[in-house]
Design a protein that fits this description.
35% of the residues lie in helices and 18% in strands. Helix 1 runs parallel beside helix 9, helix 1 packs parallel to helix 17 and helix 7 crosses helix 8.
Length: 534
């Protein structure tokens, strides 16, 4: 226990501060950080510009009684330790599906089912690469367990970190070494390689390989041949690569995070846009809101990206080299979201109805992924859309009414900078392409669409503040991960302005719904206060 930690001699200790800590953003990371700090005795305020908390795990009402996950629609990294630490299980955080199978959709109808480490065709016949796939994923899951351990703590500083960071770095090396010489050598070979070569060295190209490639590049502006994409895949295989669907939908998960924070004593204010982070003598002093009101505090944790955070706290407080590094963080988004309300349950040709509630991935091959990336580079909408889709209402009917269903699709390789520009026609065009692709594998789906919602990368940027509409606030690739995330000099959450920290997806270990950036940032705050109090 860290106890009730307030810096001796600070405004908080003298009773002059409104709050010990103010957190910008009521997404899952901001709420996780707030809960951790409040549990340790801090007086915490969370500010959210939207009308409701949730951020990336918010929901949309497509039509009366039909709710869709507005952005994220599955959990694949929120671990049991984080759920227990935040007390989410006491606030309705339970899975409707705890280990969702994946269907690798094939345009010819020869779909592939991936479930519990096994693989076979949808008609039950064996897949020729089943043994190779099992061996590959078993090895990668073992490596991913090591990545998960690193994810639950601040990454060691490469320079100037002192003996504690040197010890942490040594522990990581020792854990890798204990895996055995052969495994260590294989990990070092695989971690910095590209997913295209690493996977196709072991299995043939096709829908099975396409799923692995898709998992490596999901959310990023990169192709499967990009160096370091295997490390991206390993991060997605934490927690055994299981994907779960929260009971009540992502909106219920947002409520769990919100209620856990409130139960810990956190105050949350929505419709509160931050205009400025106040700084005096290189020390955070508080927040100025858009309406001009001022709030005093000792620490500010920002769920925003580094560039926006630095602008809010004024760029003059940062040296030229740090500004240069932040400007070079790659944040170009390439993902859109399409939500559909359906009057009937979709039925995929060649797939048993018991598997309709699975995760669908349309990524016919590694080569198809590379072609899709080529189009995005030149600002074109994909001719053959690549996507991940779920129909959460099939597993949990409570999220809709009247027998209707909702389909949520994350569409990859949709460029932020569209050649013809983003407008209503562009959004309609993208929605039509996704519906047409779905109708090919699930005939009749197009006729059952009663409402749609298309959210472009630019829409995502405007609504969430994610730079470039990038879901992860920066590429999840080797040179922007671990000790390099988000940039050298800010890899341990603290910025050069005393009392200012990053706690969002831009920070280690990165995006996806894990709550780890928020928890790790809160632990960094508490550790710093403990050292100063000693």
């Amino acid at each position: 226990g860290t106890g009730n930690l307030k810096r001796p001699g600070s405004r908080a200790a003298c009773g002059m501060s409104n709050y010990d800590t103010i957190i910008i953003g009521a997404g899952h990371n901001g709420l996780a950080a707030a809960t951790r700090l409040a549990q340790s005795g801090q007086k915490v305020l969370v500010l959210e510009q939207a009308a409701t908390p949730g951020g990336a795990i918010a929901q949309s009402e497509l039509e009366p009684g039909v709710f869709a996950p507005r952005f994220a629609h599955l959990l694949m990294g929120l671990g049991t330790p984080e759920i227990k630490a935040l007390g989410l299980q006491d606030h309705g955080c339970t899975p409707a599906v705890s280990d969702m199978p994946t269907i690798a959709l094939c345009p010819t109808g020869r779909h592939v089912v991936l479930q519990g480490g096994t693989v076979h065709y949808a008609d039950g016949t064996p897949h020729p690469d089943a043994a190779q796939y099992q061996a590959l994923t078993k090895r990668l899951t073992k490596f991913a367990a090591g990545i998960a351990q690193i994810s639950r703590q601040a990454p060691p500083a490469l320079t100037g970190g002192g003996w504690r960071q040197a010890l942490d770095l040594g522990k990581i090396g020792l854990n890798m070494r204990l895996q055995g010489k052969d495994d260590l050598r294989e990990f070092m070979r695989v971690a910095l390689s590209n997913v295209y070569d690493a996977v196709l060295d072991e299995i043939t190209d096709g829908p099975l390989a396409g799923v692995l490639g898709f998992d490596a590049i999901l959310g990023g502006h990169m192709g499967p041949r990009a160096p370091g994409t295997m490390l991206s895949l390993l991060t997605r295989m934490r927690e055994g690569a299981r994907r779960s669907l929260p009971k009540g939908g992502m909106g219920a998960l947002a409520a769990s995070f919100t209620n856990a924070a409130i139960a810990a004593g956190v105050e949350i204010r929505c419709n509160s846009k931050v205009f400025e982070i106040s700084v005096a003598n290189d020390q955070v002093t508080g927040i100025v809101l858009q309406d001009g009101s001022r709030l005093a505090c000792d620490q500010v944790l920002s769920s925003l990206d580094p560039k926006t955070t630095m602008h809010l706290s004024h760029i003059l407080h940062y040296d030229a080299e740090m500004v240069r590094r932040v400007r070079h963080i790659r944040t170009k988004g390439a993902v859109a979201k399409v939500n559909l309300a359906l009057s009937n349950a979709p039925k995929i040709t060649g797939l048993d109805e018991s598997l309709a509630a699975a995760r669908w991935v349309m990524a016919p091959s590694m080569d198809a992924l590379e072609l899709g990336y080529n189009g995005a580079k030149y600002g074109r909408l994909p001719d053959d859309v690549i996507f991940e889709a779920v129909v959460p209402s099939l597993s949990d009917p409570s999220i809709t009414t009247g027998g209707h269903h909702v389909l949520s699709a994350i569409v990859q390789y949709v460029p932020y900078e569209l050649k013809q520009g983003w407008d209503t026609n562009s959004n309609t065009d993208l929605g039509n392409r996704v519906i047409a692709a779905l109708d090919k594998v699930a005939p009749g789906l197009a006729d059952s669409v009663t409402a749609r919602e298309v959210i472009s990368p630019q829409d995502i940027e405007i609504e969430t503040g994610a730079p470039g509409g990038h879901w992860h606030h920066g590429e999840l690739i080797a040179d922007q991960m671990l000790m390099m995330r988000p940039a050298p000099g800010m890899e341990r959450y603290a910025l050069p302005v005393s009392g200012l920290f990053l706690c969002g997806a831009s920070a280690h270990p990165g995006g996806d719904v894990t709550a780890l950036p928020g928890l790790n940032a809160a632990d960094a705050v508490l550790a710093g206060l403990k050292r100063k109090a000693a």
